[in-house]
Amino acid sequence: MSHNASTHAATEAAIGEAVLSARNIAKSFGSVHALKAVNFDVHRGQVTTLFGENGAGKSTLMKVLSGVIQPTSGEIILDGEPVTFSSTTQAQRRGISIIHQELSLAPNLNVRDNIFMGRELGGVKGVDYAEEERQTRLLMEELDEPIDPLTLVEDLRLGQQQIVEIARALSVDSRILIMDEPTSALSASEVEVLFRVIRDLKSRGVSIVYISHHLEEALQITDHAVVLRDGAMTAYAERKDIDLEWIVRNMVGENFDLGTPPSGYRMGEVALSLENVSVADATVPERSVVDRLSLSVRAGEIVCIYGLMGAGRTELLESVAGRVAMSEGRVVLEGEEISRLSIAERIAKGLVLVPEDRQRDGLVQTMSVGENLSLASIGAFTKGLFTSRQREQAVVDDSIDNVHIKTDGGNAAIGSLSGGNQQKVVIGKMLATHPRVVLLDEPSRGIDIGAKAEVFRLLSEGAAQGLAVIFSTSEVGECLSIAHRIVVMSRGRISAEFGADVTKEEIMAASGEAVVA
Amino acid sequence: MTDISQAAESSRSRLFSGNIDLGRLLLEGRAFFALIAIIAIFSMLSPVYFSANNFLVMSSHVAIFGLLSIGMLLVILTGGIDLSVGSTLGLAGVFAGFLMQGVSLEAFGVTLYPPVWVVVILTCVLGAFVGVINGVLVAYFKVPAFVATLGMLYVARGVALLMTDGLTFNNLGGSPELGNTGFDWLGFNRILGIPAGVLIMALVAIVCILALSRTPFGRWIYSTGGNARAAELSGVPVKRVQVSVYVLSGICAAIAGLVLSSQLTSAGPTAGTTYELTAIAGVVIGGAALTGGRGNVRGTLLGAFVIGFLADGLVIIGVSSYWQTVFTGAVIVIAVLLNSIQYRGRKKRSEPSDGDTSSSREGARTRVADPAAESTVGKPAPQPQK
Questions:
Q1: How far is A166 from chain B (nearest CA, A)?
Q2: Secondary structure element (H or E) that encloses residue A405, with its range
Q3: CB contact under 8 A, A389 and B371
Q4: Cellular component terms, GO, for this chain's entry (chain A) (predicted)?
Q5: Which of A426, A469, B37, B109 has a CA between 20 and 30 Å from the CA of residue A61?
Q6: pLDDT for B228-270, tens place per residue?
Q7: Do B345 and A415 touch (CB under 8 A)?
Q8: In angstroms, what CA-CA distances link A469 with A435, A496, B83?
Q9: Is A1–B384 a contact, with Cβ atoms under 8 angstroms apart?
Q10: pLDDT, tens only, A331-342
Q11: Cα–Cα distance for residue pair B378/B270, rounded to 1 Å
């Protein structure tokens, strides 16, 4: 089938012929359409880069191609014949491997064992370690990377670990390699090494599908550019026909109206001020993921924090909320220092966080919509020892009305809601505590554009009533919506601060994402 | 605005309305139906099984497991487990027996004979103390609950053995002149014909039902087990909740120890061995999820009754104790099986795809380290464009 030599000979007759094609691929999660009829080709021995903002559908598309999930409709055509993958193993047998952003290596094993994990060589006499080692050495030589097969993976630098992942993909004979944000955690020199390896792979006929937020970097390596927006492919071009401006234009598209900064009222005093806040890296304590950052927000003001992955946004917001400890600095809420208070005490004082990952940090999946909504404000409907059902019902009803949750009622299971409505439950839960300052970490992550607009409208309504809002985002378009002020974070520091009249290019330049000449 | 709220009003059902669905009812009521089936079957097999007196006797046996199971439920609801309850039960019995013998304070040359109510309180304090150690280890030192409470299982048992040198206290009656009589009340007395142990279990059950369903603490327990991270960010004092449930479990075990030693009129250091597993079984049969967040007292009590009535029924009809063990094990496995059916939700397996049957692992293996095979056939790949 896939290794059929005659098929290869036929397809390789034409250079750059599509080795893998997606035809009208659509994927829906409940009522959310993550992909809408996407078409694109992967060309033999070339790099095809997918551009698109968060939530544009890049990762979903990659998951479809690599067999992690199955498309709702549409076809995948491999070597001219339609295929379906029900698992990554199947896709891998047909030569398609994916290298995820979070590497899937076992850090406690050495390079050799990782490469042959799950398909150890040898038979009844046990594993043939010598042969495995020889093949690993061979792979590393081919990749021109002097990594000893017996080194523990945890002792390797991240860039080297990525090379090991690539080697593993090659060892199962992958002809199509999908790389999801491979450079996001690499140093500049490691990126160079990775690019050399990619060029080397190309010359051997391996096709690469590449996803990156670092547009300029991607432009160095890609041969084809595919741009996705809101689950649909908006543009395709070859490298020679495009530049950075083209990508940004197609990525962001016509501005969907996410609102404008609320006005017509006077901002209040400073509600929250951060003074020299630092947060140490969880794994490398000497490193700071947030580095002496200072910021203040007034009542009624909306501040947007923009930054790439790893810029320290999440760590900053979690430390302010009390989830992670600050290594130094002070958090002052309405003139009162709250740096030493617990999360519960900060909530009581009026500071709440809507976390980035609503499944992991936001929702209690075993509880109903109503119980989730009322979780943070139990005190409000407790009288003496017992909770009052009537008053809880009132709190839940109010929340459902205030944040416009579409649900069958408070008794519905949390899993029955769409992503956008789940997000509104998390926001509604925190707003039910009547906060003075609300922090939202990527509130628009994984929700559709309509829900996004609604979330933003909620925030600007809140601000107009005196709420101080800080939200973070990795989508430039969202900065230019309701925020009065845009703060760009890079490597744990504020690299720039803009008013609402800034351009996308200026923001991206300040984040280190793209340098526009 | 009014339009929206009216629309929302009409589409909204009540928060606490029950949903009625026969299939679900059967599944959720499985412990109840199992109990009915057990009673029916044993009543047919033995004429003595179905009598009020036998039910009361069996219930006083169930009381021990019921108390342990309720404490265990609280722990399991937070996503933990408490393996130390059997040992705590034994330790509590021995401690109570020790106090009943009189505490001699050599420095003062006197021997104190605390009254029974003081013995009861001190024993509960001991149970709470064991729970505090468990809870602090789990919540603050991040020791996995399984390991922390497994350690406590050994420590508490060891201490119980040390206290008596492995012997059993047989004299728990106290004497009127010392004013410490009445310990047998817990095991033998009946109020309105119902054994005191059963009443104590019912009381504990009612308190826990109220706590779980009507207090903030109950909500905290469920949210901690459902998603501790989300609960913490919502202001739930997750660590304190975790410590509290182990304390409550310890107290429940201590009460069970008091009742058991009173029933047996003796306090042995090996009492309650492997009871922790029976308690877990009761919770699981009652429909609670071992991953936390799901379960209730009603189900757990039913689970305890299922195990107790099954075990006693097997004794009554004269089945060998080896078979009893086999039956109990089977019931537990079936219960867990039903649990996984209940909580599987709407997750469905994707249908297997066609094609892709020929390329085997061996095929890939022979080609290992030969990724360049294809490119050597083809023409040179295009240069990367700058």
A1: 11
A2: none
A3: no
A4: plasma membrane
A5: A426
A6: 999 999 999 999 999 999 999 999 999 999 999 988 888 889 8
A7: yes
A8: 10, 19, 47
A9: no
A10: 999 989 898 899
A11: 77
